[in-house]
Backbone:
């Protein structure tokens, strides 16, 4: 009875029918945006939204902006799966989901503004263009970044905690007794630089010196072929005493290339050299070797972004923030525990790294 009275009050104050208020509060899509906004504003004043079930999405339309490669599973499986996660998150709701390809940088401003006029809220996947961030912040609509950050702190975002993921992966190898660890990293984007910084942090925490000339191979892509070629050349010129006991790859396909290079060099995984990845979804096993990895959150990014959009819809005055999702360590068989090996030169210990 009290709830019915509240709906009647909201209808009277909004100048709409009781049935319209009911549809809006139920998250139904068959209401004009202006009418819905008016009803929600009154409902907020009456305190109804404070107890509204969080499962209702108070939107008619949601637009997803992402780089063109994100819509092709063969070009970028990570972003492709993130977008699938968004679709799954809104599937139970009456929300129209639409997509727009937008470059990461130097984005098409006119296209972005045109599409924003057609939606109630937006999710920007991997878009780094600061001008787009500024426009999104100035448009009075919920807008959340996924795996990107607004350096001027105007927009909310959700991302994997890349730096902690990198640190956690390297720390696990240290805990397994490894000291000669070679990192294979593609630094195509600042998120990968954050992972590498986490790896450096783990070395620093162990009071070990990270020498990028000895402990790092940088790649231009995440391809298996490039990783195999680069590591193969490295192994040819690496003195036996400095040969790594473990390879830490920044992605599953890089890990696959590393395993190929090691096998071509006559080395066994993990008996001679361990291999670990920071990905863990694309290749559960490489050449029948189950892959130990820190799984980077992926499908969860979309669901969390949708929740943030909903909270912004319920409380437009909430401060923007950044949600960092942890990875998950999955221990399989590509990493073995070792004891100190006198055949390997000791790693120099001190409190600095380059």
Residues:
């Amino acid at each position: 009875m009290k709830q019915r009275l509240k709906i009647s009050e909201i209808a009277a104050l909004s100048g709409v029918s009781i049935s319209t208020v009911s549809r809006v509060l139920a998250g139904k899509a068959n209401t004009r945006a202006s009418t819905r906004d008016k009803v929600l504003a009154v409902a907020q004043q009456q305190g109804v939204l404070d107890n509204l079930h969080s499962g209702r999405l108070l939107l008619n339309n949601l637009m997803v902006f992402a780089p063109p490669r994100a819509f092709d599973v063969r070009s970028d499986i990570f972003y492709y799966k993130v977008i699938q996660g968004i679709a799954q998150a809104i599937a139970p709701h009456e929300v129209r989901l639409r997509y727009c390809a937008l470059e990461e940088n130097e984005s098409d401003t006119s296209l972005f503004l045109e599409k924003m006029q057609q939606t109630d809220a937006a999710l920007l996947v991997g878009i780094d263009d600061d001008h787009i961030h500024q426009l999104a912040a100035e448009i009075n609509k919920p807008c959340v970044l996924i795996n990107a950050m607004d350096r001027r702190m105007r927009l909310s975002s959700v991302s994997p905690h890349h730096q902690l993921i990198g640190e956690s992966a390297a720390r696990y190898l240290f805990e397994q007794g490894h000291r000669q660890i070679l990192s294979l990293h593609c630094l195509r984007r600042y998120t990968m630089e954050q992972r590498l910084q986490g790896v450096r942090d783990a070395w620093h925490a162990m009071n070990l010196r990270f020498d990028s000339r000895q402990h790092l191979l940088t790649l231009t892509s995440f391809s298996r072929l490039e990783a195999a070629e680069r590591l193969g050349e490295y192994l040819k010129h690496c003195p036996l005493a400095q040969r790594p006991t473990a390879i830490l790859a920044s992605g599953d396909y890089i890990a696959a290339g590393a395993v190929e290079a090691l096998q071509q060099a006559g080395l066994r995984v993990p008996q001679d050299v361990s291999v670990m990845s920071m990905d863990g979804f694309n290749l559960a096993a490489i050449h029948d070797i189950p892959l130990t990895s820190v799984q980077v959150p992926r499908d969860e990014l979309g669901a969390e972004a949708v929740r943030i959009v909903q909270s912004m819809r319920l409380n437009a005055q909430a401060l923007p923030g950044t949600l960092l999702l942890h990875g998950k360590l999955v221990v399989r068989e590509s990493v073995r525990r070792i004891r100190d090996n006198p055949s390997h030169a000791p790693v120099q210990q001190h409190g600095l790294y380059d």
Q: What stands out?
A: Residues 276 and 282 are 13 Å apart (CA to CA).
